[in-house]
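agent> fetching stored inputs for the adenosine-5'-diphosphate docking request
agent> found them:
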Amino acid sequence: MMPLSVADFFLKLTQFDFRILSVIEVLMAKYEIVPTEEIAAYLHYSEKKIQKALNKLQQYKLILIAQRHYLGAALTFLGYDALALKALVEKGTIAQIGPEVGAGKESDIRLAIDDQGCEFILKMHRLGKLDFRATKRARAFIAEKSHISPLYESRLSAEREFKALSDLFNAGVSVPQPIIQNRHIVAMHIIIGQDLYRVKKNEFQTEKDILTLFNNIIHEMQSVVRQGYIHGDLSEYNIRLNEDNYPVFFDWPQYVETESKQARRILTRDLSNILNYFRKKFQMTIQKNVSELLLQYFENLE
Ligand SMILES: Nc1ncnc2c1ncn2[C@@H]1O[C@H](COP(=O)(O)OP(=O)(O)O)[C@@H](O)[C@H]1O
Ligand SMILES: [Mg+2]
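agent> prediction call returned; pasting tokens
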């Protein structure tokens, strides 16, 4: 059987199916693979009835059934999606779920529509998939704990992103307006425009336009630092130009705080990504000491 499309979740799954998914989610705080026996005990149903429902959920790829020294089940990302999307539908955030519009390194990006007919973005965080680098990066900010499930990592990542977007948006920084976060999903406004890395050189008429863009990016970086944040993965891949060609910074889960020990190193890296982009794309000459001056400026803010 094919995995369900998101719309199918709500047509093909019964309340009972969703209850089982929720129970597995709850018990996954305790078990990597949740024993069927425990699910049955939790819901006061026979193991046989639970097993039958688990088989259906596995056919739809919402869970994996695994045999340890006991028989058990674990949610897949698809199962986690189903729970989060259901919650967002019930809260009234989502009226319709639209198509996928992009898959980033560590997320799937989907359109959704609210009850006013307005489109917005659902960013579904997916950490700990078969991407060693992604896992390593996420582990860095979840210090100490040695084993963390990909679902939990993804939820933490979404929580971090939502916090950064909320703080920065409220302070007037140019970031997408966050709407709500549930589990590993962040809902936010769409930035109409295009990613900076896709912008063609000839879309800029004059040197002055290029310089304006550069200054606007630096200005926004300063505003971010003033709020105590450093993006941590800033480059032409995480900046979009809106309809007014004004830069909007997105993709925040890896931010660091300006008080962090690594702050200066990471800010320097963000800054050099931007300087390199302008050098390569627009052959902009940036005097050597400009980047030093900028860093000094950032430090004086702290
Ligand atoms: N709010 C948004 N509005 C419009 N497009 C977006 C928005 N957020 C993300 N995107 C698109 O999705 C892509 C991936 O998003 P991003 O947050 O960078 O995810 P990842 O962490 O996977 O890199 C971006 O390059 C951008 O094109
Ligand atoms: Mg990105």
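agent> quick read of the result: The chain has ten helices and 13 strands.
agent> awaiting further instructions
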